[in-house]
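[Meeting: bench + compute handoff]

Bench side (C.D.) handed over the final construct sequence. Compute side (W.E.) agreed to return the predicted structure before the next meeting so the bench team could plan truncations. Sequence as handed over:
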Amino acid sequence: MDLGLAGKTALVTGASAGIGRGIAKALAAEGVRLAVTARRRDKLDELAQETGARMTVIEADFMAEGAPQKIAEAALKGLGGVDILVNNAGGSRAFTLESTEAQWEEAMTLNFTRQRQLAHALLGQMIERKWGRIVNITGKSEPDGINGAFAAKAAMHAWAKGLSREVGKHGITVNCIPPGRIHSEQILRNYTPEFRKWQAEHEIPMGRYGEPEDIANLVCFLASPRASYITGAVIPVDGGLRRYQF
C-alpha cells in the first residue's frame, strides 16, 4: 500500500534510540523528509548515516526552558514546514508516597507539558496549510502503582482528544499510541532478562515483546493521508498485554 507520505515533512522527538529511532527510520523509508531531535547528537548522526537520508539534526535537551520553541524553529528552518509531529520523548517515573513536588513537576513537564508546547508551536503553520498530523507516543492511564509518567500520559490523552476537536476542521488529526512492552533502552534498563522472558510467556498473548517497528508501522499509517478520518483516538500497541488498562 502506498501511504502517500513521500515528500511530507516530519519532526520526531526522542529519536536517538528505541521507539523514536524506529519511527524515524520507518518514516524515512516512506520518503518523508525528517527533523530529528534528542540530547545525544552522535546517535542522531548515526541515525542519519544509517538511513542514508538527509536529516535536520537538532541536538536539544527537551527539559530546558524554551526548548519546544527552539526545536520548532530549527525544524521549520531545516524543512521549510512540518507536516507531521511525532511526540515521542519521555520516560517512566516510578514514585512513592514520599516523592517530592520537584519530582512530580519534572515528570509532568517531560511527559506532557513539553509535548503540548511543541505541538502548539507548530500548529499555526499546519492550520495555514490545512493539513497536519500529530501522533503522541504515550502510556498507561491506569498504572499498577504511582508513576508520574503515567499521570502525565493520562493528561496527554485528555489534551489530545480535546485538541482533535478543535483542529479537525483544518485537516489536522491528533492521535495517541500507548506502547506496551517494546524493546528499548528503558526496558532493558528496568527489567531483567528473566522477567522479560516470564512476562512474554505468561502475560503477553503474542508471546513476545514488541519491536520499535511495531509502533513505527502504526505511526506511518496515522501520519498518512489515508488516515484522514482517524482522530482523537488512543490506539494501544501492546501484543494484548494482560492487565494493560485505559
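W.E. noted at the follow-up: The two ends are 31 Å apart (CA to CA). C.D. will use this when planning the next construct.
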